[in-house]
Amino acid sequence: MMRIGIEAQRLQRPHKHGMDRVALELIKNLQVIDKENDYFIFVKPDQDTSAISNTSNFNIVEIPGGTYPIWEQYKLPKIAKEYQCDILHCTSNTAPFHTKIPLVTTLHDIIYMEESLIKQLTSSASLYQKFGNLYRRLIVNGVVKKSKRLITVSNFEKENITKFFDLNDNNVQAIHNGVNTNFTTKINHLQAIQVKAKYKLPNQYLLHIANKDPRKNTKRVLMAFNEFLNVSASKLKLVMLGCKEDDLKGILNEINAIHLYNHIVLTGYVSDEDLPVIYGLSQILLFPSLREGFGIPIIEAMACGVPVITSNTSSMPEVAGDAAHIIDPNKTDDICSGIIKIHSNDNYKNKLIEKGLKRYKHFSWESMAKQVLELYIQLYKEQKLKKI
Predict the structure, then answer these.
(1) What is the dihedral sign for C-alpha 139, 290, 16, 318?
(2) Are β-strands 58-62 and 308-311 bridged in parallel, bridged antiparallel, or unpaired?
(3) Which of 135, 167, 195, 197 is deepest in the core (most CB within 10 A)?
């Protein structure tokens, strides 16, 4: 029987981001498929204590206090040692140096290593994002050397990591992310009415998931939306998740399109319960990122029966297959043409929806958890043999 520690520092924070959600799905699915081994889920105490619950072999261990680096580099390894973990899985790109426990580290991507430090520090990303990227840059080389196994989320990213760090191909395993069963074409009518009112959603809209990170390509999305409105009689609005009003106005002023403001709805943070409805009510998901390690919104939208426009770069073609409208994210005209084609051609739109409803089924959290568990078992056996 193994004693497995899983770092999930931010699991209890109320506003979860991509990596937090991946860790949560991993743990929830391991709880279903593994009743034999003992798990210790190391979290930093926060508001959402209901995110995950103790079970007979899963124990939530709260480790209070400290900044992210102090918590991870000093507090986490100390507590993991006290719990006599055979393996410590760190789920969010970084891990402690000073531990003798065999490490498994998930590197979702190494985007933060691909740009110059000056470019990162002067970008439009938030201070939180800049600090996170700086911390990762400082320690990722040591983490890669220290880890017994590296997990990443796409074959594209596996090849990228292997080349960047000059690793043996066997050192890195690509395990795709999944899509939650809440993402479905079956929308509850009453919930749809409530969500629509809660976020002030228009009757018909395009959907874009944005933040201050330049790789989300929000500026070109807005430029393409402006072009679309100029050449179309459509009254479609643009709903944007994760974008703040000041940031939006800043971009609109930069592209001389402040008039677009009245055609845009900002939702603010959207809960996991409401997100599938917002997808399901949309006409098209605009996901023309410049760079992704995976791109979960692609398969979430597909599961909701929504056509997707996404990029021909990095992991996105791998995830989307032939079930999305693929564009060059550097060309505003490409994004605009994609919107026009899907919006004006019902046959094309329906084909994308049909293909998407088949495509998303290739990705499941259960499959991801089974592959991770198999990795734990293999590593545990290797470590046992070394002690003989």
Answers:
(1) negative
(2) unpaired
(3) 195
In angstroms, rounded to a whole number, what is the distance separating the alpha carbons of residues 172 and 51?
29
Q: Residues with Cβ < 8 Å from 121, sequence gap 6 or more?
A: 130, 134
The answer on pLDDT for 239 being more than 90 is yes
In terms of Cα–Cα distance, which of 374, 368, 373, 376 is closest to 25? Answer: 368
Q: How far is CA 219 from CA 140, 161, 251, 288, in A?
A: 30, 28, 6, 11
CA distance 10 to 24: 10
**Cβ neighbours of residue 79 under 8 Å, at least 6 residues apart?**
42, 61, 63
CA dihedral 369, 373, 375, 380 (to 10 degrees): 160
CA 360 to chain centre: 15
Name all domains of the chain by residue range, CATH numbers in brackets: 3-178+364-387 (3.40.50.2000), 189-362 (3.40.50.2000)
Q: Is the CB of residue 93 less than 8 Å from the CB of residue 19?
A: yes
How many residues are recorded in the chain?
A: 388
The pLDDT of residue 387? 73
- DSSP E strand stretches across 210-292: 237-241, 264-266, 284-287
Residue 367 makes CB contacts below 8 A (sequence gap 6+) with: 176, 178
CA distance 243 to 273: 19
Identify the CA nearest to 40 among candidates 75, 3, 77, 11. Answer: 3
Who contacts 87 (Cβ-Cβ below 8 Å, separation ≥6)? 2, 3, 4, 5, 101, 102, 103, 104, 376, 379, 380
pLDDT of residue 116: 73
Q: Which amino acid is at 325?
A: H
Provide φ and ψ at 111, rounded to 5°: -55, -40
Q: How many helical (H) and strand (E) elements, i.e. helices and strands, does the chain have?
A: 15, 13
* Location of structure tokens 């845009």: 264
Contact 60, 26 (CB under 8 A): no
Q: What is the pLDDT of residues 24-73, one digit of tens each?
A: 999 999 999 999 999 999 999 999 999 999 999 999 999 998 898 999 99
Asked if residue 22 lies in contact with residue 10, where contact means CB atoms within 8 angstroms, the answer is no
